[in-house]
Design a protein that fits this description.
Elements lengths: L1 E3 L6 E3 L6 E2 L6 E4 L2 E7 L7 E6 L5 E3 L8 E5 L3 E6 L5 E6 L5 E3 L7 E7 L2 E6 L8 E6 L2 E7 L4 E7 L5 E8 L2 E8 L4 E4 L9 E5 L2 E6 L6 E6 L4 E4 L7 E7 L2 E6 L6 E6 L12 E2 L11
Antiparallel strand pairs: 1-2, 3-5, 4-5, 5-6, 6-7, 8-9, 9-10, 10-11, 12-13, 13-14, 14-15, 16-17, 17-18, 18-19, 20-21, 21-22, 22-23, 24-25, 25-26, 26-27
Length: 290
């Protein structure tokens, strides 16, 4: 597992031979100084959710190697993940106390959990038709709200403050990006279905997503305060799985013939130009700085 520090440009390895990441999508998350991933310890019977503190360098197990944990999410104070049988339930770990609390305990399927602020989200098939909807829960209230009417709603992402939730809806062979405002309880469709977005992330007033409108995957930025969409990449290469935090966008791109990590920054009031991207070079940190 590699950690890239943007101010210094240094890269460090934060996993070990007893916490090897499983290398699947949606099995890694970061918020502030906390990093979580699903990994493997050769001495354990099953996969483990690991938590790494960037400031202290401390690495700990959140789960004990039993069960089938996966799809972890993290905030400043909590870790969430899916665990259990083939359907799975949502669990919450309090970083300060070390306590684990089940969020769900039902016969339905839960997938792809995330947390920001006091808001927990996941994909859930607790519907009459059995299709996936987006479940939104609060640490302050026991009620769970399901979002989505038609088709499959999945791949949820919640902003770091917990105020906004974005996800992908799929129906009639098309996909679209939707956004839920936790404070107003309004749901807004951000993109049309013809572009077929495949991944989305939200933070603050910015939504980023990748879609197929140009025949290959490109990255787009949507500003919620202005309603303006801006292309971040427009080229013949594939770019997908964007993330955004405090105005910094990162994504995977195969511009070099292999998948690398790229980054750009949303600065001031003007959106970034498509050319203002850079490849993250994996420069090892000087000894003693990890």
């Amino acid at each position: 597992m590699q950690h890239y520090d943007i101010p210094s440009g240094n890269t460090s390895t934060i996993s070990s031979s007893t916490s090897t990441p499983i290398g699947l999508l949606y099995e890694l998350a970061i918020d502030g100084n906390n990093v979580v991933w699903t990994g493997v310890d050769p001495q354990a019977k099953g996969d483990i959710v690991f938590l790494y503190d960037i400031v202290s360098g401390g690495l700990q197990q959140v789960t004990d190697g039993s069960g089938v944990p996966g799809f972890p999410g993290v905030s400043q104070d909590y870790v969430v993940w899916i665990d259990g049988d083939e359907l799975g339930d949502v669990y919450l770990y309090d970083i300060a106390s070390g306590n684990i609390t089940p969020v769900t305990a039902d016969p339905y399927e839960q997938l792809l959990t995330d947390i920001g602020g006091n808001t927990i989200v996941w994909a859930d098939n607790e519907t009459e038709g059995g299709d996936l909807d987006i479940a939104v829960a609060s640490l302050e209230q026991p009620q769970v709200r399901l979002l989505g009417d038609f088709g499959e709603d999945s791949y949820p992402d919640v902003s770091s403050d917990g105020n906004r939730v974005a996800w992908i809806n799929a129906q009639d062979n098309e996909t679209a990006v939707y956004l839920y405002d936790v404070s107003t309880e309004n749901v807004t469709q951000i993109t049309g279905g013809s572009a077929n977005p495949d991944a989305v992330a939200v933070d603050g007033d910015h939504v980023v997503y990748s879609d197929w409108r140009n025949g290959n995957l490109d990255i787009y930025l949507y500003d919620l305060s202005t309603g303006v969409e801006t292309p971040i990449t427009q080229d013949p290469y594939g770019q997908s799985y964007p993330e955004i935090s405090e105005g910094v966008i990162v994504w995977m791109g195969n511009n070099t013939g292999q998948w690398d990590i790229y980054t750009t920054e949303v600065t001031g009031g003007a959106p970034p130009a498509p050319v203002q991207t850079s490849l993250v070079q994996l420069t090892p940190a000087p000894e003693g700085e990890i």
